[in-house]
Amino acid sequence: MTVRQYQKKEALLKVSNVSLRYDCLVLRDISFEIDDIIREGVTQGQIVSLIGRSGIGKTCLFRILAGLIKPTTGTVLIDHDQHPVRAGDVGVVYQNYILFNHRTIYDNLRISLERSQTPPGGSIDAVIKEYAAEFSLTEHLKKYPQQLSGGQRQRVSIIQQVLNGNRFVLLDEPFSGLDAIMVDKVKQLLVKIANMHEDNTFVIVSHNIDHSLAISDSAFIIAKEEGKEGAVVKESINLIDMGFAWDPDVIRQQEFIDFCASIKDKI
Amino acid sequence: MAIQEFFSPLKVISKRTFFILAFVEGVMALLIWQLTAGELIPTPARVATAIIGILGTDYFYSNLVQSLALIAEGMGISIAIALLVAYLSLIPVFKPIAEFVIKCRYLTLTGLIFFFTLITSNGHNLKLSLLVFGIVPFFVTSLLSVIDSINVQEYEMCRTLRMNSWRALLEVVIIGRFDLVLEVIRQNFAIAWIMITAVEGISMSEGGLGTMLIKSNKFINIDNAFAILTIVFLFGIFFDYLLGVIRGWLFPYTKLQLLS
Ligand SMILES: Nc1ncnc2c1ncn2[C@@H]1O[C@H](COP(=O)(O)OP(=O)(O)OP(=O)(O)O)[C@@H](O)[C@H]1O
Ligand SMILES: [Mg+2]
Fold it and tell me: Band of the pLDDT at B259, cuts 50, 70, 90?
């Protein structure tokens, strides 16, 4: 357990009183805030976990955060200027790693890079090759998504959303269906990309509490209150203050394991 | 492979085994046909002789060209109309029109022949409009089911990549599903091929395989009728195969879908 020095600056994402009603109330009154974390001498992105039981409304919240559906009430403000979120502000990596199946991996990445708001320096070709090399996809660039394994598709999907210039990326169940070694790789990948830019912010929705919390700096537990309809944020957790953040080996520490077990009782 | 494996359900067999099975069963079918055929039904040997006879006449080729030209024209027009209706169905105002078109499958052509005869100027246009009217509803039905089966997440991905709805339509529906459009064309080509002989029977002035068929029946030349039927059948299978090959060649990723 290592407590680290940091500061929380302005809000990068602010969710206020969001509710969502379909046939019944799915989300009741969700409010939380993700702040820019500043650390002396390091580029520090943000990784946040959303934790909740199956069917509680995580995916619904997800689509609200991405600006894909409008909440019944409430607002989602994003970025330094805190504007209401629009589709395109936030990248989404779905559980089933949706890609354009009729395009090669190269073209999937190219189409995203061409639409980027903040084109990176260098030619499109060079950037794609650079990322492909970085994330062991070079030999797959000419293949079609269906020729890739689930884990490879997921990497493409994450890079696709990052190349699009999105500082915010939401990931739905990024660890499901992967073997233990792949889970570690994806965790490393997420940490690496998150820390490429000060504003980079990843929001992870996962059933796998241990892995998700191990790379997060904060977490929000979404659950129903007894006797009431609709999910709320039941607890906010600051993992930095608890000494669990920014430590790849935290998952092997007994205190962390006990902590994760206590979370499981709360959801 | 033991014989009993050919009879157990869900058994996976190799392509070669399939062809052997198909060949053996084909030969058996021909044998049964040969042995049971009599006065009314011509034997395979007689049909084969008739086919060779027909293939040797100019009369056949001019009729074949006639049919091929008509089907090419009919398919071209039908595909254009069907694609337009299907793509437009994604724009709310056009949705009811598309829904109406697919319900037109239940309109019987026989009842419309008279109407079409009145509004078309000649036999060619009559055949063409019957053909198009007959195919389009089926085409649109298949196309809409392709569009329906698109995962909303794919549109959402386009939106997260900051595409507007027109660009998403182009990327996901038009470009992304073009291979399936070809598959729909292949499946519906069969309907067109069957209909062509029917409409050529209605308006016989231009000739065509359908006209040949009707004339053979009229003169009770059963051998010839069977021969033409067989030729029409074989052509259909050939087109089916050809369209499949073209699809695999144009869209290499479609073969992957079959594997996984
Ligand atoms: N379009 C919709 N119309 C009506 N109800 C919906 C709709 N989408 C989701 N729901 C309901 O909202 C609730 C939350 O669904 P959601 O998919 O967000 O759950 P989840 O927390 O993501 O679950 P899981 O972890 O199993 O993916 C469910 O009870 C679901 O039935
Ligand atoms: Mg979900």
Answer: very low
Q: Which residue of B has its CA nearest to A98?
A: B154
What is the pLDDT of chain A when averaged over all its residues?
89
User: What is the domain partition of chain B in residue ranges?
Assistant: 44-259
- Amino acid letter for position B65: V
- A175 and A83 in a single domain? The answer is yes
In this prediction, residue B42 has a pLDDT band, given cuts at 50, 70 and 90, of: confident
In chain A, how many domains are there?
Answer: 2
- Which chain B residues are within 8 Å of A63, Cβ to Cβ? 156
ipTM value: 0.83
Cβ atoms within 10 Å, residue B218: 9
pTM of the predicted model as reported, rounded to 2 decimal places: 0.83
**Spatial strand order in the sheet of A90-93:** A83-84, A73-78, A7-21, A25-38, A231-238, A218-224, A46-51, A201-205, A168-172, A90-93
User: In this model, does residue B220 exceed pLDDT 80?
Assistant: no
Note whether A100 contacts B176, CB cutoff 8 Å: yes
Q: Is residue A15 part of a domain?
A: yes
Distance from the alpha carbon of residue A54 to the mean position of ligand 1, in angstroms = 9
Assigned CATH topology for domain B44-259:
MetI-like fold (1.10.3720)
Say yes or no for a CB contact (<8 Å) between B160 and A111.
no
